[in-house]
Amino acid sequence: MYITCLDLEGVLVPEIWIAFAEASGIPELKRTTRDEPDYDKLMRWRLEILREHKLGLKEIQETIARIDPLPGAKAFLDELRSFTQVIIISDTFTQFASPLMQKLGWPTIFCNSLEVAESGEITGFKMRIENSKLTTVKALQSIGYDTIASGDSYNDLGMIKASKAGFLFKSTDKIKADNPDLPAYDTYEELMEAIKKAMK
């Protein structure tokens, strides 16, 4: 029995923080898990910048409302879900993900949650579990599933390497060069073919 585990941002939808950096005119917010392997450090840094600029959840959600899935992402996901279970495992937050899940046809997503004050200020964040992508894949394996995983960033490497088959998708040259053992693809057609082959 297979479950395919996919990252969200950079794989199915554009990077939320990059879109918000462009919308808000704050280039520092373009930093993502492709650049910073330590997610806790990255998020604390982001929240500090939001506080400095007096920006909160409402402003980020307004940007997210204008984000569409990457071209071909929904068709890829629809086809994938027609022959295997799929879980999106993301370090994003439920408050960010919901509008995007609607545009993707409500796939299952495991993610985290933000702590938001009544004023709308994002005061903190609650991770579902430490090292959530790898931990989730191992938990699925412990209940009898073979996992196939794909993602683009440093925080995806654990789940990719722990899975029966794992692939980099739309990743950076540096991550690809640092992990030459991992097959890397840039189109949904290539990734679909690799997943089907892995399940044979």
Q: Give the full name of the CATH homologous superfamily of the domain at 2-12 and 71-111 and 128-198.
A: HAD superfamily/HAD-like
Broad structural category: alpha/beta
Order of helices and strands: EHHHHEHEEHEHEHEH
CATH C-level of the domain at 2-12 and 71-111 and 128-198: Alpha Beta
What does this structure look like?
With 200 residues, the protein is α/β, with parallel strands linked by helices. It has a domain at 2-12 and 71-111 and 128-198: Rossmann fold (3-Layer(aba) Sandwich). It is 42% helix and 20% strand. It has helices spanning 16-24, 39-52, 57-64, 73-81, 94-103, 132-142, 157-162, 173-178, 188-198, and strands at residues 2-6, 85-93, 108-116, 122-126, 146-151, 165-169, 184-185. Strands 4-3-2-1-5-6-7 form a seven-stranded mixed sheet, with helices on both faces. The longest helix is centred in the first third of the chain and has 14 residues, at 39-52. It starts with a strand and ends with a helix.
Strand and helix map with partners:
Blueprint: E1 2-6, H1 16-24, H2 39-52, H3 57-64, H4 73-81, E2 85-93, H5 94-103, E3 108-116, E4 122-126, H6 132-142, E5 146-151, H7 157-162, E6 165-169, H8 173-178, E7 184-185, H9 188-198
Parallel strand pairs: 1-2, 1-5, 2-3, 5-6, 6-7
Antiparallel strand pairs: 3-4
